[in-house]
Amino acid sequence: MLAFVGWRGRWSQCRPLLRRPVVWVIACGVAGYQAFFFAGLERTGVAVGTLVALGSAPLLAGLLGWLAQEGAPGWLWLAATVVALAGLALLTGGGSVDPIGVGFALLAGGSYAVYTVFGARLARDGHSPSVVLAVSFTIGALILVPFLATAGWVWSAGGMALALWLGLAATSLAYLLFGLGLPVLQPGHIATLTLLEPVGATMLGVMVLGESLPAAGWLGCALILLGLAVVGLGERR
């Protein structure tokens, strides 16, 4: 992400951001999401952990955005988000419920809300979204460096290739695209639209890995897409 910022000739915009306390708050949100999300999945399983973390993020982002005077997301958004969350529940199915794991997943959703809301605020203040994300993600990565020592898989050739893919595609490219929406969309709507992520992962699982999806899962995907379509139409209006 820093290389992209340098390529666009925006290095000079990085240093002033480091003096903004809100950037450090965003960075803590970035680091917190990674740590809490995987801690939640480890304790409560992928299905419930994903449902709680991704499901709580739109609601928490909408509430935090309203409290931070970024605008109320509106009743249409709330209805669409409820429909999408019902779809997410059907898609992820059941799983073991561990209270501590659920707590970690909720903290992940809250962390996501923090960097979505305040990232949108900086973008609306005139800062380049790519610079905001590059600076905050770099600080967040530095916060997480001490945990790297416990990740033995990284030091193999396959692990390094996987880490490179996760860094370049799944994080940097994804969040640079995410940044394009920050200046123009309401934070709650942004978080709701990212519920497309589990649908994409499910489709890849079916098409690439040959996994099967029960009828409830297909219905869940349809409900998520319906909820996202309603949010998208609301934004166009």
Topology of this structure?
Blueprint: H1 2-7, H2 14-18, H3 21-44, H4 46-67, H5 75-92, H6 99-124, H7 129-144, H8 157-181, H9 187-193, H10 196-207, H11 215-236
Q: On the 0-100 scale, what is the average pLDDT? A: 82
CA radius of gyration: 18 Å
Largest sheet: none
Low-pLDDT runs of 5+ residues are none
Give an overview of the whole structure.
The chain starts with a helix and ends with a helix. Helix 4 (about 45-65) packs antiparallel against helix 5 (about 75-90), helix 4 runs antiparallel to helix 9 and helix 6 (about 100-125) packs across helix 9 (about 185-195). The chain has one domain (about 1-235). It contains eleven helices and no strands. The chain is an all-alpha fold. The model has no long low-confidence stretch (mean pLDDT about 80).
Which properties best describe this structure?
237 residues; mainly alpha; globular
Summarize, please.
The protein has 237 residues and is mainly α.
